Amino acid sequence: MTERSASHTSFVIERDFPAPPSHVFFAWSDVEAKLSWSDCHTDARDSEFSMDFRHGGHEHYRVRLPDGMTLSVEKVFFDIVPDQRIIFGYDLVIGEKRLSASLVTVSFEPSRKGTHMTYTEQLALLDGFTDVEERIEGTNEGFDRLELLLRDAVRA
């Protein structure tokens, strides 16, 4: 029998974007916009993505990595306040192993630069998974792409 465990942690990432909250929120809520910045495995072979952005809606992401393993993310949206807040839960599975389950709150506040976004993730790390630093790094890489997307939109 496999030993099961769960440990808990959280992290917060704050970012300022050069666009109003409505533009940043749109980048989270529109299927094409979201996929353009949130896909953290651009070297993947095959990928699937779908999103039903509404309270109780689901987001599905599945990708086959270069080593042949699959990575799957399943999300459920719990709370959506346009231009202000998104709350969702998701789990991360590689192959057949569930690595974590998370609750995420993303808030958008007007700022002098445009929008101050606060991303708070509370994680349950499962069965010995401990690589939170990799999760933070991947999340920040996505937010770097989001910033470029918003800068390009502001220039247009």
UniProtKB/TrEMBL annotation:
It comes from the Bacteria. InterPro entries: ASHA1/2-like_C, START-like_dom_sf. Residues 19-145 form the Activator of Hsp90 ATPase homologue 1/2-like C-terminal domain. Transmembrane segments: none annotated. Belongs to the AHA1 family. This is SRPBCC family protein. It comes from Steroidobacter gossypii. The lineage of its organism: Bacteria, Pseudomonadati, Pseudomonadota, Gammaproteobacteria, Steroidobacterales.
